[in-house]
Amino acid sequence: MPKITYIEHSGKEHVVEAESGISVMEAAVKNMIPGIDADCGGACACATCHVYVDAAWADKVGKPEAMEESMLDFAYEPKENSRLSCQITVKKDLDGLVVRLPEFQG
Amino acid sequence: MGGRAIIIGAGQAGAQGAASLRQAGFDGDIVMFGEEAEPPYQRPPLSKAYLQGELSADRLYLRPPAFYEQQKIDVRLGVRVAVIHRAAKSVETDRGDTLPYDKLLIATGAPPRKLTCQGADLPGVHYLRTIADSDALRPALKKGGRIVIVGAGYIGLEVAASARKAGLDVTVIEMADRVLARVAGKEISAFFEKLHRDQGVDLRLGAGLDHFEGKTRLEALVRKSGERIDCSAVLVGVGAAPATALAEAADLRIANGVWTDEYARASDPDIYAAGDCSSHPSALYERRLRLESVPNAIEQAKVAGANMAGGKVVYDAVPWFWSDQYDVKLQTVGLGEGADRTVVRGDPDAKKFSVWYLNVGRLLAVDAINDPAAFAISKRLIAARTVVDAKALADPATDLKSLVS
Q1: Are A41 and B42 inside 8 Å of each other by CB?
Q2: How many CA atoms lie within 13 A of B193 on its CB side?
């Protein structure tokens, strides 16, 4: 199973094994990663699963679609590499993915 | 802080309440009772992805089973709390067990309103609130034929969209003269009416239900007008009623749901309530509100959990809602009731626009169609009780961000 590393704002790292096909948000919730609220459960409606994608993974993860991009605009401290983790699907290609969590969600 | 906290209801509010109690440092026992067999799960996909068979049940679970173990939350599923004994500060289950509490959270939700007309209990007449309800409806979507939806609210229209996607013939009958009449303005209603008709839905407005017909199972629905519509399934979505029976029997104050103050506390200093089952005072709207929405359940339960652990947090969040139908996402912020002016931004034909509801200039609510920017900005404006310039708002050249001070 692909490995994903979540790095909390404090610097604390969590490495999890995630099933292909679920989202990076779902993998975080399943593994009780603090800092991903995911209030809407993955409907791309709330921007509380915001992550920063590690620069090395930016191309493989890709850019957000228009809806997601607008939501990100109003997330807490959006950056160039911001994504909503509910919109990133775990797959073999993303084995080793590193994402960082913002200080706050929403 | 220790002792025992009991939570009645294992839905979105119950689960959040338990988590928030721990987050606030409550280190006593937490016992959560759920009537259903499943651990706390999200309900919105039950009319969409889960109904369509695209999501398995375990993907609905709000948290993994390990979470409750780690947080020492004793989740008792398939158990109904039958009585709250306020004087003894205990609850009694339907199995006759009695368990004392120091703090109690009522998070019993709002089950669907049931019809009582002739034939309403025929197999083939469905409601939608639980995983079991969605599981029962799914075979009807696979079988084909015609489904009639009674009620054009969120649930009815979302199921209509799912059923069209599954290739069914769909008729929607609605008593009001427009869809989503209870929750959205006229422009939004007109947009969704066109959307569903374009997708092939047979939409009947101002249409009342008289009764159902069928020998051993549902065969037809008969309208008040006498028209008979043959169908193999019916989904009834005519609103929900707060589950207040326990609170009423315990002589707690009821006001369109379990009455709570701004601290999510019921009319008993040791009892709290959160989510669909409760009403709370809104300083923002200067009236009492009972909201049926996931964000309200989560935010109010956070407040209840923190206060049960000894905090003094006020609940006054801006209400918000969302609905997904076909390729359209509706996001609503605030409550538009009392608006004296509406401003439309964008183009409904392009399926991307927003409707802004004002009262003497103050922004009350916004309905955003495929327009998350309008949604996100208006959330801030409404929370800040902003008076906006309607003229500037109506001007497509105005950058929405310029409205945020």
Answers
A1: yes
A2: 18
Residue B50, H or E segment? none
pLDDT category of residue B295 using cuts at 50, 70 and 90: very high
pTM of the model: 0.95
In degrees, rounded to 5, the angle at the alpha carbon of residue A101 between the alpha carbons of residues A76 and B373 is: 30
Give the distance from CA B102 to its chain's centroid: 29
Judged on CB neighbours under 10 Å (0-12, 13-18, 19+), B251 is exposed
Angle between helices B154-165 and B131-143 (to 10 degrees): 40
Place of tokens 């409205």: B403
Written as one string, the DSSP assignment of B146-206 is EEEEE--SHHHHHHHHHHHHTT-EEEEEESSSSTTTTTS-HHHHHHHHHHHHHTT-EEEES
What is the residue-wise DSSP string for B222-246?
Answer: EETTS-EEE-SEEEE---B----HH
Measured between CA atoms, the residue of chain B closest to residue A41 is: B42
Contact B106, B273 (CB under 8 A): yes
How far apart (Å, rounded) are the C-alpha atoms in residues B30 and B271?
Answer: 14
Query: Collapsing DSSP states into helix, strand and coil, what is residue B83?
Result: strand
Looking at chain B, which residue has its C-alpha nearest residue A47?
B376
Q: Which of residues 358-397 of B touch A (CB under 8 A)?
A: 370-373, 376-377, 379-380
Query: Percent of chain B having pLDDT more than 70?
Result: 100
**Whole-complex ipTM:** 0.87
pLDDT digits (tens, 9 = 90+) for B160-201: 999 999 999 999 999 999 999 999 999 999 999 999 999 999
- State the pLDDT at residue B188: 97
- Check if B22 contacts A (Cβ < 8 Å): no
**Rounded Cα–Cα distance for residues B200 and B388 (Å):** 39
User: Do the chains contact at A41 and B329, CB–CB below 8 Å?
Assistant: no
